[in-house]
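TL;DR need C-alpha cells for one chain.
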Amino acid sequence: MNDIIYVTDETYESEVMNSEIPVLVDFYADWCGPCQMVGPILETLAAQYKDKAKIVKINIDEQRKLAIANKVMSIPTMLFIKNGEIKERFSGALPQSVLEEKLNALISE
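>> reply
TL;DR here they are.
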C-alpha cells in the first residue's frame, strides 16, 4: 500500500501547511532520473513514518504554481516542514539514511 500523498494546489494548504505532523515534501517530475531513484526510498519512509510524519509528492509539471511559490529551481527538491514553516530545504537525491536523520530531527524538535 502506498502511503505517499500526492498534493495539488487545492490540497497543499490542508495537507502540508496545516498538517499536525511534520511533512517531507518532494518536488519531482516523471521524466527526472534522480527523482525516480528517490521514489522507492520515499515509499519506504512513508510506511516507516506513518502517523509520525507525512511524505508528500508534488509533480512540478502539473503543479507549476506550487513549484514557483516554493522557489523550486531544480529537482528533486525536498522541503522539511513543521507547523507550516520550512525548516530545511535540499536539492538533489539524498540517501535514505540522511532523509531518516532529517525526519527524526524534525519529529523530535
